[in-house]
Amino acid sequence: MVDEPSSNLYTFSKRMVFRVSKWTGLFRFASWKTKRSLRVLCYHGFSIDDESLFRPHLFMQISTFRQRLEYLKRHSFPVLSLNAALSRLAAGTLPSRATVITVDDGFYSFYRHAVPLLREFSFPATVYIASRDFLRGLPIFRLVVQYMFWKTRAKTLQLDGLIKAGAGQISLSSPETSRNVMWEIVQFGDSLSADAQRTELVSEVGRRLGIDYQEIVDKRTFCLMNPEELSNLTSSQIDVQLHTHNHRLPEDLALAAEEIRQNRQVLAQIVKNPLVHFCYPSGFWTRQHWPILAASGIQSAMTCEPGLNDPHTPNLAMNRFLDGEDILQVEFEAEMSGYAEQLRRVDLRLWGAPSPC
User: Fold this and answer.
1) Which of 313, 225, 294, 300 shows the shortest CA–CA distance to 256?
2) What is the pLDDT of residues 250-267, one digit of tens each?
3) Dmax over Cα atoms in the chain, in whole Å?
4) The CATH number of the domain covering residues in 35-136+236-337
5) Contacts made by residues 59-65, CB under 8 angstroms, sequence distance 24+
6) CA–CA distance, 222 with 267 (Å, rounded to integer)
7) Model-level pTM?
8) Of 144, 153, 256, 317, whose CB neighbour count within 10 A is largest?
9) Where are the domains of the chain?
10) What pLDDT, on the 0 to 100 scale, is given for residue 319?
């Protein structure tokens, strides 16, 4: 879907503000002012093929990731393990501009591309694993379907057998019609009880759209790491932690607790480190889950809300900056300097409008 003009103008204005602010030294001032706050970065997957064009907020070119790590190294940002950072944050002994790197979901592309880079820079990281898709060992179904609709050059699609109701041929020239049919296929696939049925469905969708599903499988484009790869992470200073079993945290507290229990049960068979840190699936969180998290032995929980962390930040609602291919280097530097956070904290009454962050 194309951004609205107002959204494009907003993004352009924000980036211009950042460029001018950096040039005038405001980044350096903000860095000094926020030096005792903890910065937490969040990543997802890395491009094996063209994923960064498909979902630039979730998939990053490895060259961009290298640029980020080089910036952290060149400007002497201390990159700490999550455990060390939380301990030192509570004790008031954080080094200046301390930073934690986190990665959600555990895509194979993280293991293939990002782990060697983290090892090269000697940077620790924490990866949060949702165990159901990890156990399946298949490309994530709904991501593949979305990718096929994004990539296809087909003009029409025959619907027979692809959705619960409806048949015949549709035109893919209308973005709204295409999007609605795509989600019907996703929902139909989610309702199937067997992975083999979903595989058959997505293979057929790919055939009709002119996309080779087997090539996606062979490249492991949307797959998570396998157990052997996950167990190898400890040698690279990568801490494996919790992300629920089904990548969801239900409002029902008993079901939420079961999600964490299953997640821990699966991961405990592969990794030996204590499983006491958590990441909210899709960043959705509410305070009502905090008693369940605490009862489950969770010591920290990450949101996807931008911002810095200080001793007053709740450990079960920690802020992170979600980095991606669609984030310019100047935006990344604005976050790392603390300047973007300073703008977010400005009283809106002084601006007359939301700050450009």
Assistant:
1) 294
2) 999 999 999 999 999 999
3) 65
4) 3.20.20.370
5) 59/109, 59/324, 59/325, 60/323, 60/324, 60/325, 61/325, 62/113, 62/114, 62/117, 64/325, 65/113, 65/114, 65/117
6) 20
7) 0.92
8) 144
9) 35-136+236-337, 141-219
10) 97
